[in-house]
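Fold it.
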Amino acid sequence: MGKSILRIMITILCLILQLAAINIFYYSVIHRIPFIGLIYSLLCLYGVLMIIKNSNNYSFTLPWIIIFLLIPIPGSILFLVVRNSIKRSKLVKNIIKNEKENSNYLIQNEKIDDDSSTIKYLSNYAGFSATKHNKLEYYPLGDDAFETMISELKKAEKFIFFEYFIVSNGIFWEAILEVLEEKSKAGVEVRVMYDDFGCLTTLESDYYKELEKKGIKSFAFNPFKALSGAVVNNRDHRKILVIDGKVAFSGGINIADEYINMEKRFGHWKDNCIMVKGDAVWNYTVMFLTMWNAVKNEDKDYKKYKYEFKNKYKENGYLVPYSLNPFKRDSIGEDVYLNIINQAQKYVYIFTPYLVIDHIMFNSLIMAIKRGVDVRIVVPNIPDKKIVFTVTESYVDALTNNGVKVYKYTPGFIHSKVFVSDDIKATVGTINLDYRSLFFHFECGCYIEKCDAIKDIKKDADKTIASSTLVPKKKVGKVKSFWQSILRLFAPLM
């Protein structure tokens, strides 16, 4: 833990020094030579116009425009540093290259005899195959999934692929690690990938070396370093566990004790998990291997990890596991959410720990209300991040005043990321309703249509809403409204 604190302090110090150097240059040179200042201001204005021209989301663009206009020189330098560090990143290049090369593994082979525009979008455009022969189990709480995860891990015979944003020492991780170590000794190939920033305060910086000593292949994704540039902002927020290509787990839970309510931090922790068996497991396998090989580059043929189910499971609607890459212009996560909202006829229920949305999402929710759709959103009652919660509350006020029913999860903190609509559509995964998840992070979800498990998701939604408190319409005070406006303005950069 001491090393983690030191890394944070060094990073903050380096950022302060970089900002100080930019400001010293700005005030010592530009103020003394007005002509140069004018030229740079014109260049910054040109930069603003180019940002506007190339933007596909003005909510994200606006903070950069304000920075450019308020502090032209530091703003332009900061923007160039951010853009160039991403372009130069070896990790970014490898991920993009791997996704392109491995797209052939997810070709849509199964005929889609359905008129679903979301399925066609995910399979034909986004490149994630839709499958019909699957079994899906939905667990309303991490507590419910814990024993099943351990049980399935113990059945592993060939390989275990493990990818999580947070891993924290405790009951949950120790139980998993015990099985991973045992399986590794038995000859099972075990790979563990965790996010370095997500585990900044929970694991030592070189923890992967301890795992390697146990025979477990491992690395920390995108190491958090002081001079690693803007790419350090793009985290692996996915949660994927694949066992022998036969079963996959995903959902909102990380591997820490609060996610199974063995530790109380913010009241009762409401999260979920899904277990997939069947052809859809292959999507999760390819997602994992694509990210793994962007760093390790050790697999030439992914097919050796594919299990052939041969229609072992009966047709049960459609499952489409999908992922988000922040370096693509496509906002797949938001597109799936918008499709569900825009196509809803009776209801759409949403779980999200953070509600920091752009104008497109906001307008879609309001339009659904105007069509007569019952729109309900459940957010936490006890926040884990107070500033983000303040921003969330600003959207809550605006939505409730326009007819959306927003509930606060009375027992504590809700970490689930779930949409369910009309008893026929749902998506469960890692994607929060905020800018970080939708545009900055690597994420994953599972789109579900006409599947038996949707009734379990709806049942969980009804039960959760019944345990929550409806937020009343109210008029926000001027001081609070002003503070919320400032936070919302820079929300895309949070």
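The chain has three domains: 2-88, 135-310, 332-493.
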